């Protein structure tokens, strides 16, 4: 079931167009705007004006649409509207590979620098994830999940990797977020986070790499089930 929580408007972007782009991308990736949704520049401008409490013209909305189209999240159809694309399974798995490769290679530098205070923060993230999952707060869980993984790059110092993941992660993100509709899937992910923390504390690099491989690899099996469960959200192959 889709969460009724809306993706927040990110207000610290330097331009209105970037703000609108970030908001729409968040809503699409969180499946608040599901594949096949038709969007008009006029309607989006009006809704953004209400959210931001300011005048919003169609021009920055159209610019945001163009940027989203470059990432394969929307299709621009003249005289019809802008349509949220269906999830491309092949691209999603390629994006998963990019993320896995970067996270895998980051682990060594991360484990050289992580400390006890960091472990406690990771454990607090996991505690909050469990609560969010049981309460059905998908958006909160996803934000915490992102924090769990992003924090590893902040600690290692390889922050540029996050920009790469963010740019090439849209179809993977939608597929991953779709898995959160099943609390059982989320519990498995949280359990794997706990196993990762144990490996971090032991400074067991090989063990952590193996757990990460399983953790990010489980989506390969889950996407097959999701494809048959929600065929209307996926690109036909």
TrEMBL record:
It comes from the Bacteria. SUPFAM superfamilies: GntR ligand-binding domain-like, Winged helix' DNA-binding domain. GO terms for molecular function: DNA binding; DNA-binding transcription factor activity. PROSITE patterns: HTH_GNTR. Residues 14-87 form the HTH gntR-type domain. It holds the Pfam family GntR. The keyword Transcription regulation applies. Keywords: DNA-binding, Transcription, Transcription regulation. Gene3D superfamilies: GntR ligand-binding domain-like (1.20.120.530), Winged helix-like DNA-binding domain superfamily/Winged helix DNA-binding domain (1.10.10.10). This is DNA-binding transcriptional regulator, GntR family. It comes from Enterocloster clostridioformis. The lineage of its organism: Bacteria, Bacillati, Bacillota, Clostridia, Lachnospirales.
